[in-house]
């Protein structure tokens, strides 16, 4: 199915499907192994102990790479559209790309440094990933509005902005509730100290994560109209 998509639409489609699988597969393995409770664990909790830690680390690193590629193609697409429309400054487009790549770096840190092994580094990586991700999709939403009506429909722009707003709203309580959790553990049970804070923070975390996934899903239609061509020139002396 991915191979039949026109242009480069298969790239965000692969990113969305792979990232969704990474979250779901790690969660299922962790729950079946009895390492986490089924009721909304942190995403990182589902990739802390083996065997799910190996699956989580591998798949999230691939997701980060796919996100880097998707963001770069999005940058090239906007640059190409901007040649005739001039709806956004090139420096703003580059800044948005850098913010997105910073978030991908945070994803790599989260996948590499596990929650219980190096909690401080893991938490910094998660903060960078989620914080930069929220800024990236918000900037992309603004750019989308600026490109209307020639390059985007207002319907798609409204969807992107709605996802951005929901992600921003969920990001703030995610940080607030997480800061109130006084211990680092993955085997939470109802009634424990700080369990409510943990639960609310985890719900917000999953909301933001799948907000990113749904946002990249909206790129598929745009990428259908864009193709990359690589030309090689040979010069003879």
Automatic annotation (TrEMBL):
Which domain of life does the UniProt lineage start with? Eukaryota
What's any GO biological process attached to this entry? Answer: regulation of autophagy
Gene name for this UniProt entry? Dram1
One GO CC term, this protein: endomembrane system
The molecule here is called DRAM1 protein
Protein family membership: Belongs to the DRAM/TMEM150 family.
Its predominant location is membrane
Q: Does the keyword Membrane apply?
A: yes
Q: Which residues cross the membrane?
A: 7-33, 53-73, 94-112, 124-143, 155-177, 197-220
**Classification via InterPro entries:** CWH43_N (IPR019402), DRAM/TMEM150_Autophagy_Mod (IPR050911)
Residue span(s) of domain CWH43-like N-terminal: 8-225
Q: Which membrane topology term applies here?
A: Multi-pass membrane protein
